[in-house]
Amino acid sequence: MGGSICCCCRSEDEENEQLTSVILSRQPPPQETCRGSLLVFLNPHSGKGKSLETFAHTVGPKLDRNSIRYEVVITTGPNHARNVLMTKTDLEKFNGVLILSGDGLVFEALNGILCRDDAFRIFPSLPIGIVPSGSGNGLLCSVLSKYGTKMTEKSVMDRALEIATSPAARAESVALYSVKTDNETFAAFLSIGWGLMADIDIESEKWRKSLGAHRFTVGGFIRSCNLRSYKGRLTYRIYEQKGFEPSSNVFGVYDKTTGQRMEESEDIDTWQLHDSPEDSTSSEEVVIEDDFINVYAVTLSHIASDGPFAPSAKLEDNRIHLSYILWKDIGTRVDIAKFLLAIENQTHLDLPFVKRVEVSSMKLEVLSDGSYVVLDGEVVETKTIQVSATRNNICVFSSTA
User: Fold this and answer.
1) Shared domain check, 215 and 259
2) What range defines the domain where residue 196 resides?
């Protein structure tokens, strides 16, 4: 049996090598007929491991037919994309970045950009396209849901492929959030989790290739049967509009290069916090120290394709949709099973033991061991995480003209 496993591993490696050769040997369309260019990141190990195949057989040929040139980076491990985007000196020539993976690689890419001196001019000027190859695709599903795409695996993939390869692709603003941990500062766009849902996300990772997105369902069943509580301190500030009117700012991806958009953009070089330290009109902080079952905050409507987690969330709106469950508020483990099942029916926020509030900032202090702190689907090693709404944004491929 051991020999058979090794053979399968070799076959998969050989297939990936062949696909890589096909991808890297493609001849770009002539420069004189080129409509634009993309910087493409492929994660061969995300989701069910199909990104190389998807690009070689579908995305690449469609880009060729539409006279869109591309430079491909096949990631070899954690922080590869981060390092490329942190140091690349010619980002200005591209019309956008295309990612074949999930939310994790988008998060990595954004935080590579964050390390640059020109980060806050690049963020709104370099559109990000996504072809879903990971098991977590909350950003893509939130964007496509706005335009009525049916949230099935096939519909999401078909529409994502159409937008990603179209010369008529359009992009629009998505709010960006400043996150500080014990040791680092991050840019984030999707979610902050601790407790139940964070555990499900991370502990089900071992079933990523075999089950894909269904790993969350299996993990949820296991965790609701073996429920944990976590001691923590949650501090938040209620969201106030303060005259801020977010704008979606829709534009054609291939109308201009990133460099041209940067030349026309506002000269921003740092975070623009919604609640500035000098603002005396901000609401008072609310502090809760207790035993929690779940803390989960989202900034977009979807965390996956199985229905919106925060139905009222909008792409460009910078409020944080915070929900939490206290141990003392649930009756039995059945309540938690009901909560997880209710997410698919979009009724989870109506359950009496689920507290929810819209905030402009939140701080979580972990006072006991046993759970992960998860940011945009990625584990961060910290005992404290502070999230602030900003007036900065990124831009994401969203539709076609």
Assistant:
1) no
2) 186-241+274-391
Residue 37: both structure tokens together: 């260019």
The tally of domains found in the chain comes to: 2
Say which DSSP state 316 is in. S
259 and 359 inside one domain: no
Residue 239 tokens read as: 């969201």
Report yes or no: 156 and 132 within 8 Å, Cβ to Cβ. yes
Instruction: Reply yes or no on whether 267 is catalytic.
Output: no
Same domain? 230 vs 87: no
- Does residue 215 sit in the same domain as residue 324? yes
Backbone angles phi, psi at 138, to 5 degrees: -65, -40
Q: For the segment 242-253, what is each residue's pLDDT rounded down to a tens digit?
A: 888 888 899 999
Give, for 18, the enclosing helix (H) or strand (E): helix 2-24
Q: What is the pLDDT of residues 117-170, one digit of tens each?
A: 999 999 999 999 999 987 679 999 999 999 999 999 999 999 999 999 999 999
114 and 192 share a domain?
A: no
**Cα-only R_g, the chain:** 21
Cα(387)–Cα(118) distance, rounded to whole angstroms? 22
CB 246 within 8 A of CB 175: yes
**pTM, two decimal places:** 0.91
The CA-atom distances, in angstroms, between 354 and each of 206, 299, 367, 393 are: 29, 18, 21, 30
Alpha-carbon distances, residue 341 vs 218, 248, 331 (angstroms): 12, 32, 17
**Is residue 398 in some structural domain?**
no
Catalytic site residue from 13, 64, 90, 103: 103
Do residues 218 and 82 share a domain? no
Cα gap 331→333, rounded to integer Å: 7
232 and 117 inside one domain:
no
